[in-house]
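FAQ: What does the model actually see?

It sees only this:
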Amino acid sequence: MKANKILISGASVAGPALAYWLNRYGFEVTIVERAPGIRPGGYAVDFRGPAMQVLEQMDLIDAIKKHETRSGKITIVNKNNKKLASMPDAFTSGELEIMRGDLAGVFYEATKNDTEYLFDNSITALQEDSDGVDVSFSNGETRRFDLLVGADGLHSNVRTLTFGEESRFMHHLNIYFAIFSTPNFMNLKDMAGLYYGTLGKRVGVFSAKEDTEARASFYFASPKLDYNYRDLAQQKEMIRSRFGNEQWQVPQLLKLMDEAPDFYFDSVSQIRMDRWSKGRVGLLGDAGYCASPMSGMGTSMAVVGAYILAGELQASAGDHLIAFKNYETKMRPLTTACQKLAEGAEWFVPQTTFKLWMSRQIWKILPHTPWKNMMIEMPLKAANAIVLPNYEQMGVLADTVY
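And it is asked to produce this:
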């Protein structure tokens, strides 16, 4: 039996991006999302190389540019807000940059008329047989689909239900982080950002929304912690307990943290799996191959992965076994290259006095060395680890699904 009805878990970026292409190819698509709506906030995400090609083929470049940002110069400061070093915006911005919440909104608007969205709902169980997947939802309903795709992030529920416990695939990089919106009380301009660091900790503030607000970020080094990743009160207390005695703007940011509508906390981790599909269930984006925020490539991987997976499903006339195999073969080089970008995470949050001193020296001299261009080019090199198939030329833009 060929696939026609597809359920996607997750309505952030990867899920709606996949829905866009599946709709275009004539599949019947449903997206289930635990949150009551599209999640706002988040950090700036950018696109390079093949990801830009995908956005152009989606005809969404103009819509994204309406929300375009451009991270400005990053300045490293001490507790007195005195400049220690700075980096140009090219170190953090790709060819196109947008806040994650704004991007999710663009993708939702592009898919809502052709996709069934089930908000405030989640998958509680699934049962697969040779012809399809029976899915039980938290609202008590059970429905049947031909395929299920988990695009539900680092803590993927679909991955756990299908492949087993998260701990089998999680590779912790010994860093935790929080990010949330605040007023732009420091009057930062043009997406400029400030970083303040002490041993095992780093705090950042960037302007956002045309300087009308800001984003605050807290990073701290730690071995794996036992906590409830859905308990925001517990997570905020973890931030307070580690940063409560820090100087600079930290006391003010901790006060603003409780007022933030979009507080997010998680580990800096990667998902490493030998395969991304099992039977009629596949994984997309962070659910299958999270490279961590340290790579700066997660959103590009999600967008490219959605394009490849949908294209392969249509090119194989809906034969999921062939499609999942080809999707993984084409995507694996990109995911491997992007995960390698995060290997220097310990230099972002140094855990020894020597590394803290050394990292500050590197920040000072790097903009004035030949290595500057290499640092800028590394993400683009990783992005170009994949050559996009032209599914349109392959004749897969059919009006019907077999």
